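Human:
If only I could read backbone structure tokens as easily as an amino acid sequence. I am handing you a single protein, as its sequence and its fold in token form. I hope you can help me see how the letters and the tokens relate. Thank you; the sequence and its tokens follow:
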Amino acid sequence: MSEMKSLALFTDLYELTMAASYFENQMFEPATFSLFIRNYPAFRRYFVSAGLDDVLNYLSGLRFNPEDLDYLEGTKLFKPEFLSYLERFRFTGKVHAIPEGRLFFVNEPLLEVTAPLIEAQVVETFIINAMNLQVMIATKASRCFHAAWPRTLVDFSLRRTQGLDAGMKVARASFIGGFTGTSNVLAGKVYGIPTYGTMAHSFVTSFENETDAFRAFAKTFPENAVLLVDTYDTISGAKAAAEVGKEMASQGKLLKGVRLDSGDIARLSQKVRKILSEKGLGEATVFASGGFDEYTIQRVLKQGGDIDSFGVGTKMGVSADAPYFDMAYKMVEYDGRSVLKLSPQKSTLASAKQVFRFKTPKERLSRDVIGLRDDHLKAGEPLLEEVMREGKVVISTPPLSQIQKRFLVEFSNLREKYKSLAKNVPEYPVGLSSGLKKLQAQLVRRLKARVRKELGES
């Protein structure tokens, strides 16, 4: 995406056709749209907030440049007056959002945009695209983190993520979700994430034998030698690595570790650990990679795997078991009027909202209540913060390490039963405030009465 000078056209066409009709009908009053997830994917019972920083950067710089307007004119869909309006277009609204790294749950607004109707409408596509990916990955990463704890995790997904942008955002979101670092060097530079890497099988096969390969790598990286031992036979590879490790020790250096990438990881890790320990290399780490996600991590550890760290790649980077979330961005207010949908399985909660979090005296997460923006619920912590006002960001984006710390603290206070990888996980309690319940009931009655009247029913 680096070749794009503008992201204004990164949108679905119907956002612009609706905007053109709003313009022609002089509909410029303020609207509030709410971003939320309708339901849990299988075996998930929480989500991790991520992606807000990209949304704020996008809204701050949203412009239609001359090339954008020339393209739209060429479609023959839009009138000159509307294109002139887009030439002056800026986002001037406000945004309330749950900060990155915090947990949230089904139907809770992750973000709400309030702006003149056209502005609030045309940003829908980007907001869902940016937030859906990063929430999905941060949540998946957090499950891997939970399964592996207290072992560390490294993002190894870059080669199989869906494109450059996804590769970058996966590195960022997985770090928020508890990973120690990434193999993605550009993400290390851009986001300040620690980078990790060892060697590929091609390095080993380029030498006549494994021992020579290991010696060569250790010579180049005497402080950071992690040797891949499964190119031919894991046990013989581990013995060769131990031999090189002993040579390094005689020179005052330490073998940092070995990597296993195939086979029966649980059984092999035990044997490799024994080989290293017998050679006096007990401090060397055993690093495992190759097809891991939360389920395989859990299984290998239950089988007695003796592993210090995991490289987690494709299945995390594409969230293989839940590759999308049912995230929606729906209007909840227009021109001072609360609005909602009654569509089956897709009904919405009306009005601008706030989410209140209740905790036990020991800071354990107890329950959430979705309320109206102006509600004040005693002892409930408001989660949605004002992050943008009059089109300008009004918060300082914290360092990524601080966002991760925010996640780690809150995740540690979520009860184990909601983190489980099992099939029958209970849902975290989320209710509605009395004010929101009352408003919702009134609107539903009114809308149903109007529908009956339009159908000619009594």
